[in-house]
Amino acid sequence: MDLNTEVLTQYLPLYQKAAVLTVKIGYFGIVLAIVIGLFCALIQYHKIPVLRRIIAVYIEISRNTPLLIQLFFIYYALPKIGISTNAESCGVAGLAFLGGSYMAEVFRSGLEAIPPIQKESAYSLGLSPLKTMFHVILPQAVSISVPGFVANVIFLLKETSVFSAISLMDLMFTAKDLIGLHYNTIEALFLLVVFYLIILLPVSVLGSLLERRVRHAGFGS
Question: What is the CATH T-level fold of the domain 5-216, as seen in this structure?
Answer without folding.
Answer: MetI-like fold (1.10.3720)
